[in-house]
Amino acid sequence: MTDTTAAIEVRDIRKAYGELKAVDGVSFTVAEGEFFGILGPNGAGKTTTLEIIEGLREPDSGEVRLLGESPFPRNPALLPRIGVQLQASAFFEKLTAREQLLTFASLYGVDSARADEMLELVGLTEKAATREEKLSGGQRQRLSIACALVHDPDVVFLDEPTAALDPQARRNLWDVLRAIQARGKTICYTTHYLDEAEILCDRVAIMDRGRVLALDAPATLVRGLDAPTRVSLERGALTAEDARALAGAEHAHEDELSLTITTRTPAPLLSALAERGALDGLQVRTATLEDVFLDLTGREYRA
Which 3 state secondary structure label does DSSP give 134? Predict the structure, then answer.
């Protein structure tokens, strides 16, 4: 990846607060138009890393280039080119959703048509006349993202945009994020929802204790794990002893509800189960990003 295609370049940045190393030698590059995720549990250093890239914090050492320029000290030339949605969003009191967007638009010299376009993008056109405090949590999150996008920035920073949302609101917001990337924008976001990142991101950096543990496309990280596939059947479909004798089966374990067979060659195993008529209630689970995280850290993933 050459410098001409890099929207973000991070080189060995570090930030400590006393004995706590919040960011401890982080490096990565984000290409223009890429959806890049920074993943990890609370306290991993995700937000601090993002704030350094945005120019909100000064690193103790290291270098950041954002759209070819240094974001710190505060760089006025970059402000119209970036959009930032923080973990905690603050809105102007007693304004409707449309008035909120119009106010943000006026700060950037953007006309009202753009504000209406953003309301449509995030699915809030019908809520245009609703005051912000009357919106649901998911609607407020979408409004926050619209405010970050109203001036048509080149790079969008989103810090846990789906946190505390219900499953339906999360998935609605996924559609908004896909639409943002489809407009050619670079997205850099943090999350501790690994399933979400696996669906949305082109590449991810998995962080913990201020360090990047792995960085690649989600599918590449999962393939590199070489984890077995788990096939679960309803209890009673087969005995554990019979399951272990099937082609491709490595191990079989039975509990009160189901029989689970592990395999690294699922095709012959599934074929053997089909021949025995044992496909009722069958579930197949392959490795996920969560498995990658557990393999890297050797401990539970902390939300």
Answer: helix
